[in-house]
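Standup, Tuesday
Yesterday: got the pipeline producing structure tokens again.
Today: sanity-check two examples.
Blockers: none.

Example 1:
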Amino acid sequence: MAFTKIASLKQVPQGELVKVEFQGKNILLVNIKDKIHALENNCAHVGGPLDEGSLTENKIRCPWHGAEYDVTTGEATEDSNIPGLQVKKYNVKIEGDSILIDI
């Protein structure tokens, strides 16, 4: 595993959707109850920008067509209008104030 720093904890406030560009990839960082989750930022349906979506508890809804994903797994939720989809989830490690992900 090659963990790489992509942000600091200060950059990802509780309950916010933060887009980070790294090595040509758009990555979505989400802080839920002080745990950082990292997902591919593009919806698996038609590529909608998930950072522009809405977050409710641990679910993020795509702003384009309403596909809904569980932030903790990257899988489409039962409430999603497009079941069976999944966005890539990255492994996260915290070192001090640094957020590292396995790219």
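Example 2:
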Amino acid sequence: MTGGSGLDVLAGLARSSRPIITIVLTNYSSAVIRETCLSAGANYFFDKTSEFDLARNVIESIAHARAASAAG
């Protein structure tokens, strides 16, 4: 990224007036990075190498919940 970082993006999205679910999917998943991203506003944080299936399941769950909410 030029002129910023992913943490800057997370912080900006967290300040948004629209409800935005933010998900970090990364290979850099130390406890410090995880906590930093969550503190910056990420709703979810997943390690690509060990939590990919969990990330997919959470994304599917969010999508289904939003579809059900929109349907009525």
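Quick observation on example 2: The chain is about 55% helix and 10% strand. Residues 40 and 59 are 20 Å apart (CA to CA).
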